[in-house]
């Protein structure tokens, strides 16, 4: 059975770190304010937030590893929010020590590159985590929107009940299973590693951003050839934002491309679900049991 970390209560502490790409403090301050003043939590800011690195990363591999490890092991921290993704978790994941975390799990929050961490926790320790909005989503009034609020609800222990409009490529049906997935590029990247996920009987969700269409096709075939797409209970396709094409066009829009890869299967299929690199990004509990219902008039995803 999946291990669910304790839900949060007012006065608990959320640690904020940047285990991958750099993020300036000015982009994190609104998130800190909301967590403290509106949600009632304490905040502990890691050294990698506004890190001293002058390159892409928020610090050296050693600095990011140490900062994240401290948050994992800190008895006074009840959840760890990754301020941003980017790239870098795959460089340190094998050196993190989860010995104490296994005994005292806490919520790990993030998406994009943090997909590696979500998958690793699920595959190795069967611990649930939160694929959810990060610090930047709190800016420009985002903290009052339904997507950031879905993170608060998840941390409070409220069960998710989401819906979205139908899409012409949807395949109707119902599925029940543990929810796994995240960023497509990272899901393909971890195939064959210690972080690789089992998908048989699970509901899989995917999303991505800024990729060439042929890269999306290639990554999907990586999942297909490795057996990740044939025996799932259902597939949720989220936002594929800012897609790029080559001078000689690939020839299909991204959703048509995805549909062609999985059209031979008969499980429920949903396109356009609000999980993405954009503002539409509901909090989803990795490993938790969900029910997916794809109907002609509406799509529902409920814990």
Give a quick precis of the structure.
The protein is 27% helix and 22% strand. With 303 residues, the protein is an alpha/beta fold.
Q: What do these coordinates show?
A:
The protein is an alpha/beta fold and 303 residues long. The protein has two domains: 13-156, Rossmann fold (3-Layer(aba) Sandwich); 161-302, 3-Layer(bba) Sandwich (Glucose Oxidase, domain 1). The protein contains nine helices and 13 strands. The protein has helices at residues 29-38, 61-73, 89-92, 99-103, 115-125, 146-156, 184-189, 213-225, 254-262; strands spanning 13-17, 42-45, 79-82, 107-110, 129-131, 161-164, 173-183, 203-209, 234-241, 269-271, 284-286, 289-294, 299-302. A seven-stranded mixed sheet has the order 6-13-12-7-8-9-10. Strands 2-1-3-4-5-11 form a six-stranded mixed sheet, sandwiched between helices. Strand 8, helix 8 (213-225) and strand 9 (234-241) form a beta-alpha-beta unit. It is globular and about 50 Å long. It starts with 12 loop residues before the first strand and ends with a strand.
